[in-house]
Design the sequence.
């Protein structure tokens, strides 16, 4: 029996090796196809405006067509890209920090206190994750105007409200598996709940914090509709708004600068991704398991 | 312990609750209220009963947007999950270049919807011109498949990651037992791996279904509903009703459409969760 099995293994592993090589080659080709759209935009962003059309989009930027970084310089000044970058960064950083702080506190409270308000809050959070943004977009933008939450510096309160669902859900999901004993020991040692939370619970929550931060950052940084409706588009434009505005407002769209702007939006994302790939992928898995 | 924490609710619970009330609860309730009213500005509303809802279903653009969205959702959910699962299977065999492939396939997911739409608009219009076919904005069928390709490109990596995690969690003693019992690779896949990754399938179909059904940014930037609203999906149709149509009645109808849309999303999510949860096995 053992002998025949070993014999079979040899045959199988030979077949397996051929299959694996084929798969590697196939996926390699697929990877190149996967990256091609970004490469195409990169190549076209280096071309002169007159050399860009739907027929010449696949031609390389050589000879007269090549203009170097001209489109980038023009695009950055035309689109006011630096201010858009600043607004996007401000909104994302403030919102994510606020979400992490408030929702971790809220999540801890919900798991440790078993009362009607806790249970209600939890149910509302789960419910809010299903509701599409279109349901509240009109009334939300009116509410934001009334409460003066319509600038990049306090729009984070709206993001806290709308992002709370996922974050609270993640934190309660994690807290449920943390034994209460350490917190009780701290209480006996004379800590008040605030001290317990910041000295004992906060460090334990770190992995969930990173996962939540990544999921919320991916959402806030790329969000288009909420800032469009809430912010004053003439004064403040985030990066997605600036790109859409660039496209929508001009009579004739200048393709070169536009592709340059797309590239300067995409390049920082790619660099960030390559630097903290491990955390991003773990964040996605954690979010999926809880969600 | 519980009692002393309870006293601290203004610090722990209140900030999130207050923001939640401003950002979600109040707009939600107000939205339901407004869906029964006719208004231009929100300070002057007149009650019209179910009139807005009746008009929603008489609006041909909404009905066509519904069918467009429904077929888009079905096609994209099936394609994304099938391809993502196959890639995940290939990447859990320990083949050469696994890490590079995983990195590359996940990448598009981090790019925002608006930017994605414009990237693909440039590429697809180029291809269509070379094939001598009408551009994206001129033919709704091209717009439909363009959106499908875009959505696959964006979502496959994300779902692949979840499937890989699911496949890696299949206990190795189960696989060993299957191979001792003489199961071939197809049998192992269908009768051991597939039931064990059912939770991942639940999550991925849920995510792709709701993402596709609620799609907005990509629709706006890739086709913007052209030609003549034929490639408009529900979310864009609602946006269009609110902000692009003139006339006193449209804002109320837009809000009513939003409520219908919300109910559809909830309904689809519940049905999907019910059916896939039933197939999950206890580990």
Sequence:
């Amino acid at each position: 029996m053992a002998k025949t099995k070993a014999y079979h293994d040899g045959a199988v592993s030979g077949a397996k090796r051929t299959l694996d090589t084929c798969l590697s080659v196939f996926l390699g080709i697929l990877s190149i196809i996967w990256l091609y759209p970004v490469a195409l935009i990169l190549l076209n962003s280096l071309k002169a405006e007159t050399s860009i059309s739907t027929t010449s989009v696949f031609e390389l930027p050589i000879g007269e067509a090549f203009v170097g970084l001209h489109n980038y310089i023009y695009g950055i000044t035309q689109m006011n890209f630096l201010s858009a970058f600043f607004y996007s960064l401000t909104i994302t950083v403030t919102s994510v920090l606020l979400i992490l702080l408030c929702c971790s506190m809220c999540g801890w409270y919900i798991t440790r206190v078993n009362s009607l308000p806790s249970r209600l809050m939890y149910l509302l959070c789960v419910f809010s994750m299903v509701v599409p943004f279109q349901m509240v977009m009109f009334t939300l933008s009116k509410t934001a105007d009334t409460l003066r939450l319509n600038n990049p510096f306090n729009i984070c309160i709206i993001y806290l409200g709308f992002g709370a669902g996922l974050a609270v859900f993640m934190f309660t999901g994690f807290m449920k598996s943390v034994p209460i004993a350490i917190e009780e020991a701290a209480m006996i040692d004379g800590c008040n709940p605030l001290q317990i939370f910041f000295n004992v619970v906060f460090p334990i929550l770190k992995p969930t914090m990173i996962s939540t931060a990544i999921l919320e950052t991916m959402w806030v940084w790329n969000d288009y509709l909420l800032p469009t409706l809430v912010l004053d588009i003439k004064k403040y434009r985030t990066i997605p708004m600036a790109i859409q505005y660039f496209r929508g407002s001009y009579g004739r769209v200048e393709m070169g600068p536009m592709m340059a702007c797309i590239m300067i939006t995409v390049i920082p994302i790619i660099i960030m991704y390559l630097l903290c790939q491990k955390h991003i992928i773990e964040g996605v898995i954690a979010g999926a398991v809880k969600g | 312990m519980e009692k002393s924490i309870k006293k601290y609710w203004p610090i722990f619970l209140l900030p999130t609750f207050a923001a939640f009330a401003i950002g979600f609860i109040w707009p939600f309730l107000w939205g339901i209220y407004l869906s029964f009213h006719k208004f231009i500005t929100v300070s002057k509303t007149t009650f019209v009963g179910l009139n807005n809802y009746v008009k929603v279903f008489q609006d041909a653009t909404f009905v066509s947007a519904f069918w467009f969205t429904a077929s888009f959702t079905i096609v994209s959910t099936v394609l994304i999950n099938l391809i993502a699962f196959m890639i995940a299977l290939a990447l859990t065999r320990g083949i050469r270049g696994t890490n590079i492939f995983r990195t590359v396939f996940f990448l598009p997911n981090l790019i925002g919807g608006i930017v994605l739409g414009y990237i693909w608009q440039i590429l697809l219009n180029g291809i269509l011109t070379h094939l001598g076919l009408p551009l994206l904005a001129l033919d709704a069928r091209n717009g439909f498949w363009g959106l499908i390709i875009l959505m696959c490109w964006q979502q496959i990596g994300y779902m692949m990651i979840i499937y890989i995690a699911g496949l890696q969690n299949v206990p190795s003693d189960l696989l060993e037992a299957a191979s001792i019992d003489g199961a071939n690779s197809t049998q192992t896949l269908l009768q051991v791996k597939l039931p064990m990754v059912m939770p991942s399938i639940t999550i991925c179909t849920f995510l792709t279904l709701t993402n596709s059904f609620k799609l907005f940014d990509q629709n706006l930037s890739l086709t913007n509903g052209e030609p003549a609203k034929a490639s408009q999906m529900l979310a864009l149709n609602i946006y269009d009703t609110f902000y692009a149509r003139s006339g006193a009645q449209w804002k109320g109808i837009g809000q009513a459409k939003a409520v219908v849309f919300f109910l559809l999303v909830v309904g689809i999510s519940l049905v999907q969760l019910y059916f896939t949860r039933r197939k999950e096995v206890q580990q």
Notes: Residues 2-69 of chain A form one domain. Chain A touches chain B through 99 residues (CB under 8 Å). Chain A is about 75% helix and 0% strand. Residues 1-8 of chain A have pLDDT under 50 and may be disordered.
